[in-house]
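Hi R.,

Here's the chain you asked about this morning:
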Amino acid sequence: MVAIIDYDAGNLANVERALRHLGADCRITRQQEELLGADRLILPGVASFGEAMEKLEHYQLIEPIRRFADSGKPFLGICLGLQLLFESSEESPGIAGLGLLPGRIVRLPKEAGWKIPHIGWNSLSVCKESRLLAGIAQESYVYFVHSYYLQAERAEDVAATAEYGAHIHAAVERGALCACQFHPEKSGEIGLRILENFLHIKGE
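And the predicted structure, written out as C-alpha cells:
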C-alpha cells in the first residue's frame, strides 16, 4: 500500500488519482500506524514551508516520517514535499525542516527577470543513474509550480536539474529516499513513468 501523507496540504487528490491510474493501492491518511505500515510513503504539498512544518507537528507526523525514512522503505517527496526533506528555507526563517537530507531552500532570484512563481513546463537534465528517473530522456519536460528551489549540499544526491533564472536541483535520490520539485502527477506520460518507477523501487 502507498500512503499519501495528509496534513491539510493541497494536491493530495491529484497524486492519489495518478497512482490509481497506475493500478496502485493507495490512500490519503494521517494515521501513524497506516503511515508506518505502508510499503511506500509520499509527501506531497502545495503551501508555505513554515505552515507545512507546523501542520506536520500539529498532527504529530514528524517522528513517523523520520522513522519511515530511516526504515529504508521507498519515500517520495513532491514539490513542497521535496523542500521539507531538507534543513531550512528562506521562505520561513528560523523554522527547521525535516533534515532528512542536507541542503537549503532559497528563493528564485527576482533580478534574473523571470516570472515568479515559476509556473509551467521546463526541461530536465538528468545527471546521475537514478531508479526514480529510469527511462526518462534528457530534456524531457515536466510541470513546475514554485517560488523557492533546492540547493542540495551533496552533489551525489542530485538526480536531475533544471534552469529557470537559477540552477535548480529538481530531483534528488539517496537510497530509497527520492523527491522532485516538479509535479509528476501533472506531467503527462513522463510524470506517470516517474511515478511508476517509484512504485517499482525496492527498499534498502
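The first strand starts at residue 2 and ends at 5.

Let me know if you need anything else.
M.
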